[in-house]
Amino acid sequence: VEKVYFYWISRDKNAFEWFNDVLAALESSNLNNFLEINIFLTGQLNKDEIKTVMHNDSGLDQITGLRSPTYFGRPNWKNIFAEKVQFHQGQEIGVFFCGPAVLSKQLYKFCKRNTNTATRTRFKYHKENF
Predict the structure, then answer these.
(1) Which of 2, 11, 109, 123 has its CB surrounded by the most CB atoms within 10 Å?
(2) CB–CB of 16/10 below 8 Å?
């Protein structure tokens, strides 16, 4: 494995807390930029939380405390997959998913759609249900 793109999507900002220590440790020992963390918050913040986020100059994300920023809204999977096709031509890319069935189906379709014979980029989809 040469590169890991980690995407975590939640509507509740408190959901990020339980895994935050692990992500912070991985982020601090991120040799050769091996790990790229992408956190997406799809829920709303209250007014005080918005002020805190807007007036942050600590260099750390105010939602997670990580150096990696939190993005607001849903990921643009079309652009994300197109970017991976370009950056990893001729490679096999594993997509590992755990979450709701609706999103699983979307990611599976993007894997199929973006497996590209011209660039020889192949996406392999794996999911975990519990």
Answers:
(1) 123
(2) yes
Handedness of CA 18, 12, 8, 56 (dihedral sign): negative
For residue 67, give both structure tokens. Answer: 């150096």
**Which DSSP category does 44 fall into?**
P
Q: What is the pLDDT of residues 54-113, one digit of tens each?
A: 656 667 777 787 888 888 899 999 999 999 999 999 999 999 999 999 999 999 999 999
Instruction: Tell me the β-bridge partners of 37.
Output: 6
Q: Cα–Cα distance between 29 and 129 in angstroms, integer?
A: 30
**Cβ of 107: how many Cβ atoms within 10 Å?**
19
CB atoms within 10 A of CB 66: 18
pTM above 0.85, yes or no: no
Do residues 126 and 97 make contact, with C-beta atoms less than 8 angstroms apart?
yes
